[in-house]
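Hi V.,

Quick status before I head out on leave. The structure for the redesign project is tokenized and pasted below; the design run finished overnight.
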């Protein structure tokens, strides 16, 4: 990917607080080639969840966006967490 604003990734950072801290993690991890550092303050939604609880079995059965839209809240939470923390399979960045 091209550097943000034509600059170098070595001079580009991202930060956020609370929900913005969650967004910082999400954006930074989805686009590691764009940022030299990320700084998330008091990020929400980062508490570890057990992979077998809170709607995980139901989330595993979802195959369409329509099913996801109709799912219970904790099932949608599991889908959101999976999307946030999943690597980008087409990224060429390797740490």
């Amino acid at each position: 990917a091209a550097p943000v604003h034509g600059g170098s990734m070595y001079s580009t950072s991202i930060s956020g607080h609370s929900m913005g801290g969650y967004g910082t993690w999400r954006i930074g991890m989805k686009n590691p080639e764009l940022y030299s550092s990320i700084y998330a303050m008091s990020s929400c939604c980062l508490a570890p969840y057990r992979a077998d609880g809170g709607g995980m079995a139901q989330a595993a059965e979802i195959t369409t966006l329509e099913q996801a839209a109709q799912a219970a809240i904790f099932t949608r939470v599991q889908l959101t967490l999976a999307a946030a923390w999943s690597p980008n399979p087409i990224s060429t960045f390797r740490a």
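Above is the designed sequence. The longest helix spans residues 73-85.

G. will cover questions while I'm gone.

Best,
W.
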